From TrEMBL:
InterPro entries attached to this UniProt entry: FTHF_cligase, FTHF_cligase-like_sf, NagB/RpiA_transferase-like
Residues reported in the UniProt entry to bind ATP: K8, M9, K10, L11, R12, R136, I137, G138, F139, G140, G141, G142, Y143, Y144
Biological process (GO), any one: tetrahydrofolate interconversion
Superkingdom of this protein's organism: Bacteria
UniProt-recorded Gene Ontology molecular function terms: 5-formyltetrahydrofolate cyclo-ligase activity; ATP binding; metal ion binding
Protein name: 5-formyltetrahydrofolate cyclo-ligase
Protein's organism: Enterococcus ratti
Essential cofactor(s): Mg(2+)
Assigned protein family: Belongs to the 5-formyltetrahydrofolate cyclo-ligase family.
Alphabetical keyword list: ATP-binding, Ligase, Magnesium, Metal-binding, Nucleotide-binding
UniProt catalytic activity: (6S)-5-formyl-5,6,7,8-tetrahydrofolate + ATP = (6R)-5,10-methenyltetrahydrofolate + ADP + phosphate
E.C. code: 6.3.3.2
Binding site residues for substrate: I55, E60
Amino acid sequence: MNRLDHLKMKLRRFGIQKLKEIAESGHKYEKEQKIYSQLFQSAQWQQAQVIGLTIANKIEISTKPIIASALKQGKTVLVPKTFADRQMKFFQITHSTEFKRTNFGIFEPISEIYFAPEQIDLLIIPGIIYHPKGYRIGFGGGYYDRYLINYPNQTCSLVFHEQLNNQWQPEIFDKKVQRLFIEQ
């Protein structure tokens, strides 16, 4: 393992610990509300008709209110499924979509309504650690870095300020998130 991989692994562990602390602090909900407010007021959100995002786990910023708001506004909501060779594709969900938990503990939709990358207006990208310049360290699977190679439209991430860290340099294959909505 090279030095950068070791650093990313260390930062990933640090970030997960910070997210757990936030989840247990009793302040997670109010911190999330500040981020949702920024997202919903943004031109990126208001102009997007098709939105891709994951079903967040307990320590991540909850995506349930985002999904509910998007569906209420008549937007199309997509959630990814993972495939062999660390590939991922986005499928439409509705109020009645059922989900299955993968071996990684991630919820994927039971849906066959597929959308190609160019059909998605806004992709809300998860992560654990964020560089202030928009780069991210995710959970380590590389699914989003691969997906973003062929994704032409808007990207953003939802970030607690505790997730910001500039003590690392992105690698050549890391794709920058266009906008970070940071809880202030």
